[in-house]
């Protein structure tokens, strides 16, 4: 089914535009990075110049190349300024003034995440730079680059995009300065911000500018944001609603206008399917209910009547008609979020604004949002319509060289080395994990490529990529096994406002069939010249357990001895705040994985990933996780400390101490957060209980917790009594004498000093 706009109109197909006149110049071997390359192509100027914080690698896994090649296919001349010296405007003049616009990006990663660790320490290398050299991009690169573009050519249009701009499109918490910052738009002084999957917006924007339309008049593109005068509306028939009328951030009472949310699990217009739940779900639902942070509260009008009508044909038709009416009304409605100044000063309003933004993220029913910044407004149009399979194929079939630009010579670019033999088969993620920003950037609706397109890319790797030995390192995406998964009914999908399709349990309307993915694996293995195909992307194991055949296929052919998966925690409280399945799902997957490995005659292992210091996690939770690790024989080499990235729901918890997964109220229980360096180090130490450098800190903590029984030299003990010479944390001197810390409660509640 082709995607529709909220008003019912079909979006313009991505490759249906009349090509720009410059298409006569043909395809560039590489998009030019110098005047000499432009002259060799016969160009006197560039129509679009993309400025990126990454090295230019002509590969579809890198957004600079993907957008550049897409605009080239539309007939535009596209140049690249990669990792410019930002200390002056001169490097931004190297290709001249663009005829249409500068497209500014920090690269494939947020520049602050790229440059700093979770402990705010600067990283020693940069995977997106030749030879991994550090310090080749500035902090908050989008702002710096955009300002330099404006300085170089004051009359040029400046458009910002990619993940850094996307996740900073409204007022947001910035972990590195520990402040709430303004939207990136006013700081960058850009004309337009493009967020999410940018193909539709970038192509439409380029063609409209080429037709002579001023950028200040382009205000209707989905997936874009811009600055405007306070109170501006697109037309007289638009309505502005205060967000506090939709979800009042006060005492717990029924919202004034709750029509937009749907009942958890399945829509009133659909009967429950016969698909059975996996065995662990009953136990996990019970454990989640006991958690202090039961996260999902959904409201509907006349819920009881809808339940009685559920499943009937008339209810289906009634629901569709009602949904159509709501969509028509919502398409001309804008929700006013609390202003930047309000969310900066009021944690409750910050959490409320975050919750509202996430509830308005489904392209099928999302309304425009507006947020005041001083005397002006930041206006956000609804999210972009997902690409069809044919459009996805067209994007990935573009003539990529699949290697770095020749200007880098023999330099090794670590990010390229990691992905040069991998293939992205889908986009998006409906998991909704609160610590992850993929959903906020790529959306919850899965966009999948066709088998034929994936197989063609395998052949391209075989024929074009230097060093190919017959092994494809990954067929994946944000989640390896969500390929072709979708809602059973497009009307339900367009009306749904759930934050996750798989938490607290898997939605009955979600198609979890792994057969298309199994078929793709089998056909990919049969491509001549391919010896083996591995799966390296993260696996959603609560979905995988619904298809034992998929697990058998995966284990027998696509695991190279170890499979990385991410339970993230073992305790129901933290897992509820993460919106992750209970550890029972991991246990069931491990049983199926081990059995399939034995049946295949292979010795293979699961490598679980866990997060330390996530909001809602207490010291007791981390202790229980540590004991689980020891019981199961895990000694983790690398562990991950929670990093609050802009716009993630867990970041909202970290900033505000409130839970945006349910109605935000001023008197609701607080979410405990781990902020101090020592406390964050303690939670990380629990994950590495076997490291002698962590033993002094763990011994002192266990005594304070009344768990000195876990100190000793037996198998039942967590840490030993003795301390090997030359070990212990040298950063804090003698941690036994100097340690002063606060003990966090196990789940929820306020922290005590």
Automatic annotation (TrEMBL):
<dbReference type="InterPro" id="IPR024560">
    <property type="entry name" value="UPF0313_C"/>
</dbReference>
<feature type="binding site">
    <location>
        <position position="429"/>
    </location>
    <ligand>
        <name>[4Fe-4S] cluster</name>
    </ligand>
</feature>
<keyword id="KW-0479">Metal-binding</keyword>
<dbReference type="InterPro" id="IPR013704">
    <property type="entry name" value="UPF0313_N"/>
</dbReference>
<feature type="compositionally biased region" description="Basic and acidic residues">
    <location>
        <begin position="244"/>
        <end position="254"/>
    </location>
</feature>
<protein>
    <submittedName>
        <fullName>YgiQ family radical SAM protein</fullName>
    </submittedName>
</protein>
<feature type="compositionally biased region" description="Basic and acidic residues">
    <location>
        <begin position="303"/>
        <end position="312"/>
    </location>
</feature>
<feature type="binding site">
    <location>
        <position position="433"/>
    </location>
    <ligand>
        <name>[4Fe-4S] cluster</name>
    </ligand>
</feature>
<dbReference type="InterPro" id="IPR006638">
    <property type="entry name" value="Elp3/MiaA/NifB-like_rSAM"/>
</dbReference>
<dbReference type="Pfam" id="PF04055">
    <property type="entry name" value="Radical_SAM"/>
</dbReference>
<comment type="similarity">
    <text>Belongs to the UPF0313 family.</text>
</comment>
<keyword id="KW-0408">Iron</keyword>
<dbReference type="InterPro" id="IPR023404">
    <property type="entry name" value="rSAM_horseshoe"/>
</dbReference>
<dbReference type="InterPro" id="IPR007197">
    <property type="entry name" value="rSAM"/>
</dbReference>
<feature type="domain" description="Radical SAM core">
    <location>
        <begin position="415"/>
        <end position="681"/>
    </location>
</feature>
<dbReference type="Pfam" id="PF11842">
    <property type="entry name" value="DUF3362"/>
</dbReference>
<feature type="region of interest" description="Disordered">
    <location>
        <begin position="303"/>
        <end position="325"/>
    </location>
</feature>
<feature type="binding site">
    <location>
        <position position="436"/>
    </location>
    <ligand>
        <name>[4Fe-4S] cluster</name>
    </ligand>
</feature>
<keyword id="KW-0004">4Fe-4S</keyword>
<keyword id="KW-0411">Iron-sulfur</keyword>
<feature type="region of interest" description="Disordered">
    <location>
        <begin position="244"/>
        <end position="263"/>
    </location>
</feature>
<dbReference type="InterPro" id="IPR020612">
    <property type="entry name" value="Methylthiotransferase_CS"/>
</dbReference>
<dbReference type="InterPro" id="IPR022946">
    <property type="entry name" value="UPF0313"/>
</dbReference>
<keyword id="KW-0949">S-adenosyl-L-methionine</keyword>
<dbReference type="InterPro" id="IPR058240">
    <property type="entry name" value="rSAM_sf"/>
</dbReference>
<dbReference type="Pfam" id="PF08497">
    <property type="entry name" value="Radical_SAM_N"/>
</dbReference>
């Amino acid at each position: 089914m082709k995607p529709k706009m909220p008003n019912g109109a079909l979006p313009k197909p991505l490759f249906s535009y009349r090509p720009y006149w410059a298409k006569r110049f043909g395809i560039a071997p590489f998009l030019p990075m110098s005047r000499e390359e432009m002259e060799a192509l016969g160009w006197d100027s560039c129509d679009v110049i993309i400025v990126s914080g990454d090295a230019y690698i002509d590969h579809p896994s890198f957004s600079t190349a993907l957008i550049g090649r897409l605009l080239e296919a539309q007939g535009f001349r596209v140049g690249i300024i990669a990792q410019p010296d930002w200390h002056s405007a001169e490097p931004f003049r190297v290709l001249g003034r663009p005829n249409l616009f500068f497209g500014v990006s920090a690269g494939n990663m947020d520049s602050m995440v790229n440059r700093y660790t979770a402990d705010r320490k600067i990283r020693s290398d940069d995977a997106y730079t030749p030879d991994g050299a550090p310090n080749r991009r500035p902090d908050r690169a989008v702002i710096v680059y955009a300002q330099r573009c404006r300085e170089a050519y004051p009359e040029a249009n400046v458009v910002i995009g990619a993940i850094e701009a996307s996740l900073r499109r409204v007022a947001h918490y910035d972990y590195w300065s520990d402040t709430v910052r303004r939207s990136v738009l006013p700081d960058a002084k850009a004309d337009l911000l493009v967020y999410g999957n940018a193909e539709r917006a970038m192509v439409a924007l380029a063609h409209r500018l080429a037709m002579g339309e001023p950028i200040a008049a382009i205000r209707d593109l989905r997936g874009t944001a811009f600055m405007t005068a306070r109170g501006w509306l697109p037309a007289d028939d638009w309505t502005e609603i205060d967000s506090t009328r939709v979800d009042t951030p006060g005492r717990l009472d029924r919202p004034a206008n709750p029509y937009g949310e749907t009942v958890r699990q399945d829509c009133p217009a659909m009967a429950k399917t016969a698909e059975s739940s996996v065995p662990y779900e009953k136990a996990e639902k019970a454990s989640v209910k006991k958690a202090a942070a039961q996260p999902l509260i959904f409201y509907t009008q006349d819920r009881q009547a809808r339940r009685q009508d559920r499943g009937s044909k008339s209810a289906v038709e009634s629901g569709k008609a009602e949904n159509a009416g709501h969509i028509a009304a919502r398409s001309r409605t804008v929700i006013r979020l609390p202003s930047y100044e309000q969310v900066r000063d009021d944690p409750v309003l910050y959490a409320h604004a975050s919750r509202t933004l996430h509830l308005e993220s489904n392209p099928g029913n999302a309304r425009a949002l507006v947020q005041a910044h001083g005397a002006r407004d930041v206006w956000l149009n609804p999210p972009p319509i997902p690409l069809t399979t044919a459009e996805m194929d067209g994007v990935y079939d573009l003539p990529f060289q699949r290697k770095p630009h020749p200007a880098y010579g023999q330099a090794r670019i670590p990010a390229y080395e990691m992905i040069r033999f991998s293939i992205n088969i889908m986009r998006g993620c409906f998991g909704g994990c609160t610590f992850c920003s993929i959903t906020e950037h790529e959306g919850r609706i899965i966009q999948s490529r066709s088998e034929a397109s994936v197989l063609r890319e395998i052949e391209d790797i075989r024929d074009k990529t230097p060093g190919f030995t017959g092994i494809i390192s990954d067929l994946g995406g944000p989640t390896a096994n969500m390929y072709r998964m979708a809602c059973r009914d497009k009307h339900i999908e367009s009306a749904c406002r759930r934050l996750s399709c798989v938490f607290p349990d898997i939605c009955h309307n979600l198609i979890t069939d792994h057969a298309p993915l199994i078929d793709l694996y089998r056909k990919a293995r049969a491509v001549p010249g391919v010896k083996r195909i591995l799966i390296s992307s993260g696996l959603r194991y609560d979905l995988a357990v619904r298809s034992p055949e998929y697990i058998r296929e995966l284990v027998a052919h696509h695991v190279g001895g170890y499979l990385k998966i991410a339970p993230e925690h073992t305790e129901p409280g933290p897992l509820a705040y993460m919106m992750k399945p209970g550890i029972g799902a991991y246990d069931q997957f491990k049983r199926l994985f081990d059995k399939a490995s034995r049946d295949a005659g292979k010795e293979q292992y699961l490598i679980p990933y866990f997060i330390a210091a996530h909001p809602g996690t207490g010291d007791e939770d981390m202790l229980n996780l540590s004991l689980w690790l020891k019981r199961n024989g895990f000694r983790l080499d690398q562990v991950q400390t929670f990093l609050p990235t802009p716009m993630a729901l867990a970041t909202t918890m970290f900033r505000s101490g409130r839970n945006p997964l349910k109605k935000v109220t001023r008197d609701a229980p607080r979410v405990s957060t781990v902020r101090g360096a020592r406390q964050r180090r303690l939670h990380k130490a629990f994950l590495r209980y076997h490291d002698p450098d962590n033993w002094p800190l763990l011994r002192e903590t266990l005594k304070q917790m009344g768990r000195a029984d876990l100190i000793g030299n037996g198998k039942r003990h967590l840490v030993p009594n003795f301390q090997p010479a030359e070990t212990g944390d040298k950063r804090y001197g003698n941690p036994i004498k100097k340690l002063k810390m606060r003990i966090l409660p196990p789940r929820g509640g306020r922290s005590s000093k």
